[in-house]
Amino acid sequence: MESNDRRAFSASVFARCNGRVLLIEHRRLRTWLPVGGEIEPGETPLEAARRELFEETGLTGVFHPVDGAVDGAPLGLIGYEEHQAGSKGLHMNFVFVADVATDQIVANDEIVQHRWVTSTDGIACPTNVRELVLLALHAGPSPLEAMATAWLAAFNGRDLEGLLALYADDAVHTSPKLRDQKPETRGEIRGKEALRAWWRGAMDRLPQLRYEPIHLTASNGRVFMEYERICPPDAPYVVAEVLVCEGGLIRSSHVFHG
After folding, report:
1. Which of 136, 141, 236, 248 could crosslink 97 through cysteines, CB 3.0-4.6 Å?
2. What are the pLDDT digits (tens) for 222-245?
3. Domains of the chain, CATH where assigned
């Protein structure tokens, strides 16, 4: 088969963080695209999207249901398109969006440079990428719910820097456990260094600690999270936490134990 006649299924994924999506300048194709690549034998499109995201950027994403999707559609699927991929022929491409906890990437050698964008103005990219950027920015849960999901993913993944990246520099955190374990704080700490020390201590002390989401509700700049605290051998219990957000960052977080 001539190279121009070659056909392959592929998957691309728009990483989304704090209301922006990731575009990369592709070294071989010399244009701006989402990350992605060909689907390997035995993979589903969603599995390929997860793998490509990690291989090209080092990021792990959360793929949400998309409003209006038909029953059985993969999580995060926002479109399908076909394009010529240079010497690799025709790519029949499944397009996804995934929320990530940080905008810090570890780029592989396919990436010349990258940008986190809210529009494609001034960026040399295909028309369908412009259209898909708009879909990716608004697909799935609200930005506030996406923030909460990214928070949970970062904490459960022990991604401390990713967790801190969601917070403003002068953010405040309050918790009954802070008051019990560090009485001098009166249950409140401020700033990323204090947050880093608190969460690093919890992650080191309780390696099995994780939070399983029950409900997320967003309204008026606040996300109300209800999750189950799981940390064997302790009995699980339900916790409520509120994230107060402004300008795409968490300004304060407040824990209420059940």
Report:
1. 136
2. 999 999 999 999 999 999 999 999
3. 8-138 (3.90.79.10), 143-257 (3.10.450.50)
